[in-house]
Amino acid sequence: VSEVVPRLSHRDCDVERTPYFISSFKLNGILALRNTKDAACTRVVKEMREFIGIDVSKNKLDILWLRDVKSNKVKSKSLPNKDFKHVSDWILKQTNAQPEDVVVTVEPTGVYHEGLIYFLADAGFNVFLANPAKAKRYAESLNILQKTDTSDARVLARYGHAMSQYDDFQVWTPESKQARELRAMLRRLDAL
User: Fold this and answer.
1) Which of 133, 142, 168, 185 is deepest in the core (most CB within 10 A)?
2) pLDDT for the residue 21
3) Is the separation of the CB atoms in 99 and 90 below 8 Å?
4) d(CA 82, CA 70)
């Protein structure tokens, strides 16, 4: 539901006492929830202004920053799939944004994407795992026929931007370190 709001109140609302955040709106890219019983009680949920798409393969990462959504201006870089700090530094340097303002869209690729998404989530980025079938259909809807690593990264960045416009948009949250270690041990056991 979209409505024009004269100003956004950033005051803290007691969600436990008044859990009636039903009305939602977007203004300048900010998704907020408004308390239906107290209109002055508005809670900002998230503000995301930069969109990155990363095409992951075994040996390299193709990173694309969607600089301007309307004109489709982009900046891209290819980096090895091992130095995730370099990826984070490149994104922050290019976008001049804080990690919490950046949505990084990644398509799951076996195990090759896991190190990257855990690193980015731990660094504070909003990681969005795109369903490969839905991302493919999105590319087809845009009539993107070429299939290169850079074009895949572009589609992922645009897909992340498009999906973030929905109120039910959810970023990926990593599992606990213990769960990760247990899953790694189970994989090793299965390999035996």
Assistant:
1) 142
2) 43
3) no
4) 33
